[in-house]
Every structure is written in structure tokens, then in C-alpha cells.
Amino acid sequence: MIRRLVNNVLQNPTETIVYSNPFLKKDTQHFGWLTNVAPCFPVPSNNIKIISEPKQFYEELLELCKSATQRITLASLYLGTGELEKQLVKALSTNKQFQNNKLIINVLLDYTRGSRDEVNSRTMLCPLLSQNPKNCTISLYHTPALRGLLKKYMPNRWNELIGLQHMKLYIFDDTLIISGANLSNDYFTNRQDRYFLIKDKKLTDFYCRLINKVQSFSLKIDKNNKVSYNNNCPYEGNKKEFVNKARDLIEDYLETTTINQNMCTTMQGCDTWIFPTIQMGQLLINQDSIITDKILAEAPHNSKLNIATGYFNLTNQYMNTLINNSQGNCEILMAHPKANGFLGAKGAAGGIPYAYSLIAHKFKRQYEYKGQQNRIKLLEYLKEGWTYHGKGLWYYAPQSNYPCMTIIGSPNFGDRSVTKDLETQLVIVTENEKLQMEMHRECRNLYEKGLPADTQRKVPFWVNAFVVFFRSYF
Asked: Which pTM does this prediction carry?
């Protein structure tokens, strides 16, 4: 199983070398171990485009919805219900190849978030099923942790705390856009995130098949918005049996792909290597969190880590690693309370921005106690009229002006990403200086809007108790 391979490599790295290190330069050879723990996709750097603005992200999506000829596969938390989202659905429905039964549309969303309110993601997408049911599938992942009395009595919105489908993958033929952004108005206008557009058939094939695997143990709807079940549905049956079956399905797929892909880690014309990582904590799949922790831990002296998260709630493991194991300088960018999407929300959700400030305050006390205040810095993203949702990591090797590695995807490096939600991201290692410069420019554009974090901000008293009891849920 892939978990055995990952654990063996991390615990006994000198005894488990399976695949050759594809990297040629000193700075990138630092990451040679990745070929033994994740599938490796070599690509030319000019097949990667970094998108910087929400509007540009939306325009790319819209154009690709119109122009795709064979397949469109979308995985997101939810689809919004505004005018921009309606234009996306219209672009799908009017795609000529879809109308001619030559294009397949495949959508994976979260069941609880996608079913919120009377007008929701499901009602937005049902017309596609009415138009062409043979060439369209709409699946809804339902966490196995939400069942029985908990499911029966937990109110809508609150039930989203238990576990979600959180992967953000937008595939059009052989083009992938990976992001942390959902398919919703704010993410198309004034909610800053990160977005990479990558053209590679093998990588898109990998993610299409992964989504198909998740769909095999998810629900689906028909043209009348009626939910149908299958034998693997988490609603009924033994939870442990479901988890084991789903875990084995995903792990077997990861293991097979790793073996097949990593026999050809060097390809002519390829100067960039992409490693997909998966985190599905409720299914006992922890590949991404293990790899992320090792990257943090092995950052050498005089290297630099830039870490971004929309929600500052690092796991205790990540905090401990950054403080006690990592030797690299580290700047962490998080949302200022004014740039937090929960600001002004009703009820307990309105306290979440203050909860992140409180967690940041406690983290700062920890690293200052260990004398690490010159090595670790906290910044808060603030741009008038915008919210912040960007996440990921950039690694700068010692004495290097540009990053040779970045991580991009859906995880926020927090407890919920590690233990509750379905997540994926890409570790991208490049030896191409032009792409490195573009990665640096993306990083700087975000950090330029970062202010020194105010960790002494006054926090409502009740938020302290909220963090103690509910930290792993937000």
C-alpha cells in the first residue's frame, strides 16, 4: 500500500530508494525523495501558466467550458448560484460537442454544501442532466462520519463541519486548472486565491481517474434532483467497512500510478516535475500531510519557506516541526480579520476571524519561547474590499533569489484539512529559471499586501472556549 511506501521512505530513507533522482541541479536534488512517495509527472515548464487574478481565473474557466471537445471534469466544494455561475452552466450547456453527444461532463461536489438552501449547486446543474443525461454525471461526496442520529438532528450548515469534499480540480480535455478557489462569485471577483493552469495529458488522466474513484463511493443525482445510492454509499452499512474499502481503492490507485509513472521520471524537453499528493483523513489516507511535514522539517539553514493560508490554524504537528525541526527562515501569510470571509457572519461563525488571531497569538508565543522570532514571521493579507483565500508554499534554496519548488492546491495546513476533508495539491519542482521567476512574482504579489500580524488583537472572551472545543472543525 502507498502508506507503507511513504512511511518506509520517511523512516528509512537510505534503505528504500526505488526510483532514480531525476533532478540535475543542487537546489532541486534536495527533493529527490519525492519520486518514492508520490506519482511523478515530468512536464515542460512552458506548459504551466500561473493565473494571478480572480477575474482571469473566471475568464479561463468560461473559455475552456466553451471550447473543450472531449471531456470536462470539475471537482469543487460547491457551485454558486449567481449570474457568473449561471454563465458557466450556460457555457457547458451550449458547448457544441456536448450538444452533439461527443463531450462528457463529469462533476463532483460536496453533498452537504452543494445541497444548502432551496436554490443550490444541485438545482443549478440539473438542467445539464435533463439536456443530456447519458453524457453528464453529477456526483455528491458524503462524508462517512455524518450518519445516524448526528445526520438526523444536525442542522444544515452545521453538518458541513463534519467533513467535506474540498478538492478544487477543473479539467478540460488535457488542461488542468488546480486552485483553492471554489466555483462561486466571490472567487471570480474579489476573493484572492492561487491558480495554476497546466497542460499535460497524463496528469489530467490521473486526476480524472481519481475523481472517478471518489465518485464510486459517492451519491449522484438525476435530472429531477433525486439522489440515488450505490452499494458503497456511506449512508448505510458498516462505517469501518466503508472506510476500509474506500481507502484501499484510493491507495491501490496511488500505488499503481506511482509505480507506472516513476519509471519515466526523465523525459526529453521536461525541466519541471509535478507530484500530486492526496489527503483524506477520514479514509485514513495521510500522504499529503506526511509529505508536507517532511518538506517543512528538511528546510536547511539559510533556505526560505513562504507559507500562505486563508485560515491560520496550523496543526500542532506542523507548528512543532516549524519551531523545532525546520532550519529555514519562514514567513507565514494569513488573512487579516478584515480579509476573512467569515467576518460579519451570524452566530458562532462570526467569531472565527478572532479565533484565527488567537491561534496565531499562541503560535507566536511558542516560537518566541524557543527563541525563533528572528526566523519565523507572521503577516496578514489586507487589500481594501477583498477577502483572502490563498494557500500553498514556496521553497527558496539557500542563496537563491527564486523558488525552485511550490505547493498549490486545496489544503489550508490546518486540522480540518488533515483530519476531515478530501484534499489534494501539487508539489511542483522546476529547474527552469523563467518559471522560477514567475513563481517568485506570484509569491511577491501576495506578500506585498501582507502587514506584520497583530497578535495582540482583542479577542472576545467566548472565542477562547470556542477554540478549545472546536479548533479541529474550522
From this structure: 0.95
